[in-house]
Amino acid sequence: MIHRSFRSAVVAFAAALLVPAVAHADTKSAFTIGIGDFVPSSPSTSLEGFEPFPGTSINQHGDISFEVSFGQGVFPGGYQITAMALQQKQTGTYLSPIGPFSADETVTQIPVFLEGGGAGLGPVRFGGGLGYDFVTHSIQGGQAANGLVGDTYLNVGVGSGTSLEAKYILGTRSALTGFYFGLKTAI
After folding, report:
1. What are the tens digits of pLDDT across the range 106-123?
2. How far is CA 27 from CA 22, 71, 135, 184, in A?
């Protein structure tokens, strides 16, 4: 519970710093930065694909995440390149060929997308993209989890160059799939 409270406080603090700075900006930049929270959509799925040991469960929870985009309004068609840093923790007891073992793992994803400008309706913008997900995890001997990744997003403008964003990130493994909720701003 303390972990989630700390994360919420950091996101609120960053939002308090980002919104006023952008409200005074007179120029529009092709760069945006964002901070948010990654929430795994399959919290009981193992990254390695191991079956949970009977009587136990796998638990994933997300962490503070970051986003950087370039190109909105620069590339023809409204395309942009977006890179994110997503982190999650996975705990559980697993059944392996050599017997059961318990593990606490940290999974870091760096998805890089080419996103379309999408459609807009007033301050609301919908879009999506396709890219590659660079994944590292702390389990020794675990399988590589890099692969194709897609996203779909909803941006709601809340001020000069600032928007609230919700993204659904679909990885090649269900353990890497999740939602990102954040605040982004032009720099």
Report:
1. 888 999 999 987 788 889
2. 10, 15, 35, 16
